[in-house]
Amino acid sequence: MPAAYTDAELLRRSSWPQGTILGVLKKLAPYVLREVLPLYVVGALVFLLLTTTDLISGVVGILLSYHPTPRQAWLLYVTQVPRLLNQSLILAIPFAVLVGFGRLAKDSELKATAAGGVRPLNLAWPLLLPAALIGAFVFYNGAYLTPQAQAQWNTAWFSVYRQAPPPPVTTTYTYAQDGTLFSASRVETPQGATVANLTGVLVQTPTETITASTGSWDARAKTWTLPGGWVVRGDARPAEFHTPRTFPQRDEIARPTPPPAESTLPELRAELASGRLNVQERRTYQFNIARRYADAFTALGFAFAASALGLMVRNRAWAVTNVVFLILGFYIVWSTVPQLAGSGALPPNLAAWLPPGLLTLLGAALAWRLR
Hints:
This protein folds into two domains: about 5-160 and about 285-370, no CATH class; about 170-250, no CATH class. With about 375 residues, it is α+β, with helices and mostly antiparallel strands. Strands 1, 2, 3, 4, 5, 6, 7 and 8 form an eight-stranded antiparallel beta sheet that branches. It contains ten helices and eight strands. Helix 6 (about 130-160) packs across helix 8 (about 280-310) and helix 8 runs antiparallel to helix 9. The model is unreliable at about 1-20 (pLDDT under 50).
């Protein structure tokens, strides 16, 4: 039956009464889901196994070389699973949809539904609800579980080598108090310590400007101490000093925000709103926030594009070929946009939403042909 016919025309040309057609549509939704969902489970497990193969070999290598405890080895593996799980859950969608529709095409079931007056796209809509549920889990996992697991992995990694994780660092710190400006390019706070290490220090009072390459910040004594450096008073030439100088400083040492990969969504938003980030860092944080939403929407984009594409395949061979090209094309764009956002070539929000946006456009173009 020509694809250009409307539902009314198809109903008029079909020998089935309208009530029967509606009943067929109701039965087709669970039928399509029964065809696709088992393939989705298999695909998700296969992709997870493939993505964790390198991780497993790395953990085995560490076991042989550094003899970590079983708990350390287990943490190195399990704390990476949430990140890889998101990728597997998303990539399994086009695999399941295209292979499932390829089977329906091979057995001429797509032709049979069209001949019975069912529009092709009516087979695609039932898949959007499961995709939305998958996207909701991907969002929660990426926004909360994966960052926490990444932080645990970082601690486990250093424990294997019997080292302490590097201390948290705050960059471009500035604070004003009683006419005195305190600034440091780097504040390094060892875990549990009350004294922070300062780098690139500047203290500007109403009468003098003092600079030093290093210093210390005592949180209990509320002081900054510079062991040596340079001082400038008025228009005089800079003079070097070697006797430690101490300045009262009432600010509190704040816990630095962890790197974006180890930050939950609320932490990313709070750091972005703090005003402490430079231009490059702002791009990174904006991109990471937008990507966590965009990755969740990718599940819907894949379901839409793969369904429309699957309704056009004629056999399983073409379905598998389309799976490869669809995933490969998506991955190329998805892995490139972080660099485009970081360099300023694309706005961070546009870069994050570009991969699912292209999938949606592809699905819309294919759906137009199937209308």
